[in-house]
Amino acid sequence: MKRLALAVLLLATTTARAQFFPDPDYQRVLIPVFYFGGGSFGSQWWTDFDLISTEGNFTLGRAFLQGNPGCPALCGCDAKAEAEAWKAESVCPTFEGPAGLVLHVPRTVNRDEVHTYARVRDMSRQADRAGTQIPVVWEDQLHDGMMLLDIPRDDRFRTTLRLFDVFQWSTEFQLRFHDMAKLRRGEAGPLFETTITVEHEEGGTPGRFPGRPAYAVVGDLQAAYPQLADVQSFAIEIRGTHLLISPAPPNKRFFAMVSVTNKNTNEVTVVAPE
Hints:
Layout: H1 2-20, E1 26-31, E2 37-38, E3 44-53, E4 58-60, E5 81-83, E6 101-106, E7 114-122, E8 132-134, E9 137-138, E10 145-152, E11 157-165, E12 172-179, H2 180-184, E13 192-197, E14 214-218, H3 221-224, E15 233-240, E16 254-262, E17 268-271
């Protein structure tokens, strides 16, 4: 009986671990913002997303694409979805969520022949501006550590940090905040340090094609961290800390960005790594 219990435990551990590691056949592509709905000051947000293959048709690992004639409201309901060559494919708004969305593209597809574009727009002010482009992040563009530089500390703006653990490996991330003026003078040392906990979809054990990353958000950095009161601009250094699995997985696993929103015009500037 003890041997059987041990075998079941080892099998469960191996299965869970395999779900966290990169898929040998599909790579993950993060759309960090995929939202349709109201916001502050009467804003109405809309996300545009297009994917075009200039090489040929290919099958995505999960059916997020719009236009499936066999599904209710033409939204994805099958196990997979076919992206047609030279057709601008979009994603169903049904799959919107605060944590963005993760697509699953075959590794056999030539990365240079798959083109993506994401943009957020405030529809209540669409006559004034066309919106802001959002980075679409491929698996090899993820990070183990990063710094987001020159974020303005200004009461006219609302600064929001979003952090995405695309493989759902971590539970916490360490944040170190730096004064940009001191960094420019070559003065080392953070203003302060804190940790941020990410929320996991499906209890932290996603299936082969999870639609969401683990996610954390700080909606207003200036309000959340009064230690920033005396700086004009700052940087955030981010490192992964507590891992859910051992041994440690491959290094690249997360992405982070800060949106800087003008409180009067709702114009958005994105601070993200190159």
